[in-house]
Amino acid sequence: MDSARPTETLHTKIIEDIRNKIVEGHWKPGHQLAKETELATRYGVARMTMNKVLTQLAQEGYVTRRKRSGTFVAQARVQSAVLEINNIGEEVAALGHSYSWTLLNSERRRMSQADLRALGVGRKVVEEEVLYLQGIHFAGNNPFCLETRAINLDVVPTALQMNFSKDVPGSWLLNTMPWSTARHQIRAVNASGRDAQLLDLPTGAACLEILRKTKIGTNWVTYARLLYPGEAHQLIAEFEPRAAGEAP
Amino acid sequence: MDSARPTETLHTKIIEDIRNKIVEGHWKPGHQLAKETELATRYGVARMTMNKVLTQLAQEGYVTRRKRSGTFVAQARVQSAVLEINNIGEEVAALGHSYSWTLLNSERRRMSQADLRALGVGRKVVEEEVLYLQGIHFAGNNPFCLETRAINLDVVPTALQMNFSKDVPGSWLLNTMPWSTARHQIRAVNASGRDAQLLDLPTGAACLEILRKTKIGTNWVTYARLLYPGEAHQLIAEFEPRAAGEAP
DNA sequence: TAGTGGTCTAGACCACTCC
DNA sequence: GAGTGGTCTAGACCACTAG
Fold this sequence. Notes:
2 copies of one chain form a homodimer.
Chain A: H1 10-23, H2 36-43, H3 47-60, E1 63-66, E2 70-73, E3 76-78, E4 80-84, H4 88-94, E5 99-110, H5 113-118, E6 129-139, E7 142-152, H6 169-176, E8 181-190, H7 193-198, E9 206-216, E10 219-229, E11 235-238, E12 241-243
Antiparallel strand pairs in A: 1-2, 3-12, 4-11, 5-6, 6-7, 7-10, 8-9, 9-10
Chain A binds a DNA duplex through helix 3.
C-alpha cells in the first residue's frame, strides 16, 4: 500500500481501499457492504467520516445505496467518458503550431430553415434574428477547422459591436457568457464541394463534424458547426467506469 | 430536464441558491464569496453544512477554493463533456431495430505490427498472444458497425473457450471484467475498400472510427476498432461547465 | 415497524498560505 | 503569524422502505 501522491486524509485512504477491493475483483458486483456503523468502527472512524466515504463512492458510481437495504457494489460499465472540448486556439497551440483565425462572412439576418438544417438544429417555430458568421481556424498555414455559427442577438446584442475578424467568436462568447452549457453532436461526414474547398481538401474527404448548441438557462445563445479534417483531428475520451442508472 | 422534484434538503437548497447567483451573472467570475463561517451564519446553518455546500460547488467547478485566500467564483469554460459510450446492442435496440451480430473471423495468434497499427496502438515491444476477432453488428438487415478486436489472452485466457459467433465479444468482456477502464479515440476516416464493402458503403464514405483501449490495472485487456457509417451514427455529448484547472 | 442511510450540529484541531 | 479552508468527531433526529 505505498500511495505516494495525494493528500493522505483519512477518508481518502479508506476510499482507495474500498475502491481497490472493488476494482481488483475481491468484491464482485452485487456484493453487500457492511453497514455504515460497522464499517466506521472497523476502520476506526466516526460515522460521518464513513458516510462521506460511501457517499463519494456512490457518486463515482462504484456502489449503490438503498435505504433500509444497505450498500452494494454496483454493476460497472464503461459507459460514459469525459470528453475534453477545448478552445480551438489552445488546441492548435498545444500541437505546437501558430494559430490564426480568418473571418469569411458576417451577416445580420433572420435564421432560415436552411440555416437551421445546416447547423443541425431541428425545426423551430420562431426564426430569431441572429448574427451569422463563417470563418476558418488555421494551424500554421493549414486550415484546421471550418466554423459556421449563429449567435442569438436577443440574448447577446453586444455581439453586433464586435469585430469578429479580430476576435474569435467562440472565445469571445466563452468570456462574455461564461456559464453557458452546451450539447454536442459528433459525426463523420464527407466534405461537400464548398466545405472541402475552404478546408483545402479533396471533395468527399472524411471530416469530423461537431454541432454545438449552447444555452444559458432556457435560452439558446449560439449554434456552431465545427468541421475538422478527419485526418488532422481526433477527440480523446478518457475512460471512467460508471454504474448503470446513476446520476452525475 | 429541469427537476422540481428532488429531496429538498438544506444544503441542496443552498447549493441551488448559490449556483443560480453564479449562472445568472449576479456573481461574476473572480467574485469572492464570504468566508465559510459567515455564510453559515447568514444561511443559518452549521459550518459543516456550509462546507459541504462549498465543497460540492467546487467539485462541480463553479467555485475555486484557496486556503487563506477564500472562495471565488471560477472562470467557467465549456471544457469537458460527458460522452455516453453504449453497448452497441442496446444502442441499436434504442433505435427500435432488431440487433444481430455476425462473426467474420476468429484467430489465435501473435499480434503483428500491422495489427497494432490497424488498431491504432503505438508500437509495443512485446507482441502478446491474442485472440483476434472481426465481426459486424447489424441493425435490422443493415450493417451498423464493423468491429475489429484483439483480446489479450494473458489476461483473459477464458476467451478461448467462448464461442463468439454466438456471444458478442464486447458484451461478454464487459460482464467478465466489469471494472475495466477505457480510453477512446474518435475520428473521421474514409472507408477503405474492404471496410466499405463489409459495411455496404461506397468506397470513401465517411465513417466514425472509435479506437478503444481497455485496461484493468496496468494490463491491457482488449483493443477494439469500431467503424460506424457516418450517416447512421452520431455521438451525443452533454454539456457541463467546468472550471479551468480543476479535478473532477 | 424497525433498521438503514441521509442529514445536521457544535465544537475542535490541523495545515497551508498569504501578508 | 494569523486567518482560511480541510478534516474529524460524537451524538442526534429524520425519512424512507423492506420485511
